[in-house]
Amino acid sequence: NAGVTQTPKFRVLKTGQSMTLLCAQDMNHEYMYWYRQDPGMGLRLIHYSVGEGTTAKGEVPDGYNVSRLKKQNFLLGLESAAPSQTSVYFCASRPTQGAFNQPQHFGDGTRLSIL
Amino acid sequence: TQLLEQSPQFLSIQEGENLTVYCNSSSVFSSLQWYRQEPGEGPVLLVTVVTGGEVKKLKRLTFQFGDARKDSSLHITAAQTGDTGLYLCAGSFSGTYKYIFGTGTRLKVLA
Lengths: 115, 111
Description:
The complex is a heterodimer.
Chain A lengths: L3 E4 L2 E4 L5 E7 L5 E7 L5 E9 L2 E4 L6 E4 L5 E6 L8 E8 L10 E2 L3 E5 L1
Parallel strand pairs in A: 2-11
Antiparallel strand pairs in A: 1-3, 3-8, 4-5, 4-9, 5-6, 7-8, 9-10, 9-11
Chain B lengths: L4 E3 L2 E5 L4 E6 L6 E7 L6 E6 L5 E4 L2 E5 L5 E6 L8 E8 L6 E3 L3 E6 L1
Parallel strand pairs in B: 2-11
Antiparallel strand pairs in B: 1-3, 3-8, 4-5, 4-9, 6-7, 7-8, 9-10, 9-11
């Protein structure tokens, strides 16, 4: 079982470059999330989606865009990368049933460095 | 801004010792989850608590939800080296689809 798969696993960018992080889940989950994790700050929500074609802003959305064209995929885009976006990015998905009792299933992260 | 504060931030103990990690907020949660994260991996759910005063046990781990649903604790009895990791609490609030994560407690258990 693949679960949640994030690509790429590592990436180094120069300031001003753009890139897209891909998250794919094979569990037919409705909800998907993008987080960033920085030392001493836990996980902070960037954007999330409650279904195909819908997205919403989280705590730290500035500098990022997202798209959910297909239910199984949630893309995170950086239009013009900045050093402050150096972080580990995690994608998660969750089923609708059972509301908030259900666990979020996480990918293994994308380590992104902006020089 | 809804914040979840965890304490302590770091904890280093000997194998066999007991420990407690705390998760506190000024807001009321509709539910709270505890996750453990190991290096190079995403967080993995340990438990979900939803009722004020609720206590759940998972082998040597005991989780408690405060009566007012503003705080939670994780107690580990007779810690083992395999308990080493980053422990995260995550709260959900009524009327939202999102979770707020705590700042994390990094635990190291020494043999």
